[in-house]
Fold this sequence. Notes:
With 245 residues, the chain is an alpha/beta fold. It contains nine helices and 15 strands.
Amino acid sequence: MKKMLALALALAFALPGAAALADTLTMGTNASFPPYEYVDGEEIVGIDAEIAAAICAKLGYELEISDMEFDSIIAAVQSGKADFGMAGMTVTEERLQSINFSTSYATGVQVVIVREDGPVQDVDDLFDIGGFNIGVQTSTTGDLYTTWDLEDEGLANIDRYNKGADAVLALTTGKVDCVVIDNEPAKSFVAGNPGLKILDTEYAVEDYAVCVAKNNTELLQKIDAALAELIADGSVQRIIDKYIQ
């Protein structure tokens, strides 16, 4: 498991009355979801890493990032192994039964990646033709949505992978007919794999937020307060614009 400390955080950003940097908050993430989180050299970087660093700076904490499988993040937050989770994580009713979410800081879009000469050429094909094998990353909203919409209705077979890159590899080798995943990493995967394309129609639009344990309402309130300031002063948008053109 990779654990990385963020770059030094400026005390000038601390909320009024915040203590000097004397403690650490651990963020659970899955660093294979560019541009939200990914490994660059020896560091975990990306939109979520920078927003988390800014939140911790506001609150007077150092940030430690713990890299784990995506489907381990909620359990890590619940158990206290991680103080909060950020991994392009969508707010859903199902997840709200287990954890709390902060104010949303970004909007994500689920899209469908296909082979240019493959059998799926329109999102409607998944529903109107059916019977396709669909690759997803385990426990992501791509997994949840396709399970509810397609697998549970007998319209598709869902193949689940630990990493989005593994699902895309399955697509390139013909093991699956398409991949449902967030738009931003989808762009990177398509750019790195000739012969793939993203369908024009969106599969779903969703809100990303920070997840916190149900019993940690104090931390949730502090994160919401910090996020409100970072959104209001344009910091969050500047971070997003740095990675998404």
